[in-house]
Description:
With 104 residues, the chain is of the alpha+beta class. 68% of the residues lie in helices and 13% in strands.
Amino acid sequence: xxxxxxxxxxxxxxxxxxxxxxxxxxxxxxxxxxxxxxxxxxxxxxxxxxxxxxxxxxxxxxxxxxxxxxxxxxxxxxxxxxxxxxxxxxxxxxxxxxxxxxxx
Length: 104
């Protein structure tokens, strides 16, 4: 394992870091898992509709009779893209940019 030193004030702390290949492979596996969950939500939106029920807001705002189905598919699509972002490492850049809006 690699050791990294962090200097905070007058103290120096050392942190053990996992090898870079371990972090990358875990990130890729997690991204694949999240993407698979998103695809399953899109693919099985009828199952979600039967088990979780209709969403009144979605029925009202997203269309006629299929508003809830469309909403479940949109949620699945967002989850799938989130998985792709995690897998490629873009997620950390997105969160860093979002955090910069609030912290200077």
